[in-house]
What does this fold into?
Amino acid sequence: MPAHLSNFLIMLPLLAWIVWRRVGRSFGRQPIRRKQMIARIVVFAIFGGLLALTGLHDIQLAEGLLGGALIGGAIGLLGLRLTRFEVDPVRGDCYVPNPWIGALLTVLLLGRLAYRFMVLWPQMQSSSASATSGAGFGAQPYSPLTMLLIGLLIGYYIVYFIGLLIHHRRFQRARLHTTEA
It folds into this structure.
């Protein structure tokens, strides 16, 4: 089996697991885990900052990332307005994200991954021809559209998790004031 296909077969189950977890977190009641949310905000911010460095080589990539982050931030604010907050007797404080926004982001992610796979599959099949031409597999791993989608997800999650943390703190304070009164 060629090396590029064995790498692909290793990455496919990992990608399926990541998408499965993403879908599970987009629907239904989710417990608020402050430390995990803060860690995700930090990871997304670092990842976004590192990806922004690609703009030093190609300004269109940075524009796609920034545009996606701005759109994602706006969608994150909309998602916060549509999120319900509840108290579960077993799980504690929970939030229920809007399923339509979760579905939209999941479809965009899966659609872009499927498109990139279809575009790269012929290159993987003809790896010997591309090796002689110098345009090997993954010669252009990012495009402005891919960076726009990545920026959309980064902007959405950073804004959404920060908003969840702020709202949760307000929710706790309000609940504390009602129990004192």
Notes: Residues 37-124+142-176 form one domain. Strands lie at 30-31, 84-88, 92-96.
